[in-house]
Amino acid sequence: MNLARQHFQKHAAKAAASLATDFGSMQNLNAYELQLLQLNNDRARLKQIQSTEGKVKLKQALLPAYMPYVEGILEANTGVQDDILMTILVWCIDIGDYTIALKLAEYALQHNLTMPERFSRTTATLITENISNEFLKVLKMDEPVDLAILHHLAELVLHSDLPLAVVDMPDQVKAKLYLALGKATIQQIADDTVSPHIVLEAQSYLSRALALDDKCGGKTDLNNVVKLIARLTPAANDDAPPPAS
Fold first, then answer.
1. Which is an annotated Pfam family here (predicted)?
2. CA distance 227 to 230
């Protein structure tokens, strides 16, 4: 897509979002309907693919065409329900583009946007569960992850000042995020000389995960962290200055 086309789509989306504040809906606005038609066509193409890997590759190829529209909606910042933006949010999670996904998630949560009808979970639940699941898959393979992404997600859904109804989700889903945070923090522990506060942080995340769901799969990790803390504590005491006489 050339720059002129991108510019047109972005500003058309922004104008449509502004008009939508008068009507309360994006329905029947040209920029939205044209993009929705494209989205429905692309979703039909995706349904023809059985392979998850194949779906991811197609989404990676398709997403750039939607970004000018999404940028226009974000700039307008009207908060009108938009099923296109919400679908692109899910696609960004699916392909692992968490930076854009969280940018869209923040907008969606701030404006209490809902998922399209074909999704059964709430916005906060879907975002948290899907990202946490993807990180847990990578962590299971001992591959490095970006801990900052999990911290950002936690700020959005666990430590938010948004109304409880917006970020409410099952305890089991919260546990997955805490478990991912705990496991990802453990990755930062290179050896026994690591700063104790990192180990304690991992313990806190894992303990919270198990408190929310004792079947979340973090017991072994927590036991290992507790053992590490026990080994680190005497060393810390040995290095402490002697008490004043």
1. Phage_term_smal
2. 5
- For the whole model, what pTM was predicted? 0.89
φ, ψ for residue 188, nearest 5 deg: -80, -10
Task: Say what the pLDDT of residue 121 is.
Answer: 97
DSSP letter for each residue of 105-139: HHHHHHTTPPPPTT--S-HHHHHHHHHHHHHHHHH
Which tokens go with 148? 């900052």
**Residues 75-97: what's their mean pLDDT?**
96
Residues 72, 95, 148, 85, CA torsion sign: positive
Longest Cα pair distance anywhere in the chain, in angstroms? 82
**pLDDT exceeds 70 at position 9:** yes
The residue type at 137: K
d(CA 164, CA 147) in angstroms, rounded, equals 25
- Coil vs helix vs strand at 240: coil
Minimal CA–CA distance to 147: which of 184, 98, 188?
A: 184
Please count the CA atoms within 13 angstroms of the CA of 179 that sit on its side-chain side.
31
How does DSSP classify residue 112?
Answer: T
CA–CA gap between residue 59 and residue 70 (Å, rounded): 15
Which is more confidently placed, 19 or 35?
Answer: 35
In 3D space, the residue among 87, 107, 95, 76 whose CA is nearest the CA of residue 38 turns out to be 87
